[in-house]
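step=encode ok
step=design start
structure_in=
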């Protein structure tokens, strides 16, 4: 039987949008499992998608911080 706890099919997953000033490289997409990386014309990168719980959100924000350290800055938007 398969594991049903992926972000896409978790019943308690909330939808989030994280905005990052600057464009993230494609290599960061694999760090944000289940989220979509969108580069906007205004120079921001948006990460959108489901996050199953606070621990997963915290991990996502840590990755975002790491990415921003290498790329630019982070702005949490809703």
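sequence_out=
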């Amino acid at each position: 039987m398969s594991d049903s706890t992926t972000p896409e099919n978790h019943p308690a997953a909330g939808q989030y949008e994280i905005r990052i000033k600057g464009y993230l490289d494609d290599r960061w997409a694999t760090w944000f499992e289940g989220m979509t990386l969108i580069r906007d014309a205004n120079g921001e990168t948006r990460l959108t998608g489901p996050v199953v719980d606070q621990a997963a959100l915290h991990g996502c924000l840590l990755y975002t911080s790491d990415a921003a350290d290498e790329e630019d800055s982070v702005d949490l938007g809703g």
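step=design ok
step=annotate ok -> The first strand starts at residue 14 and ends at 21.
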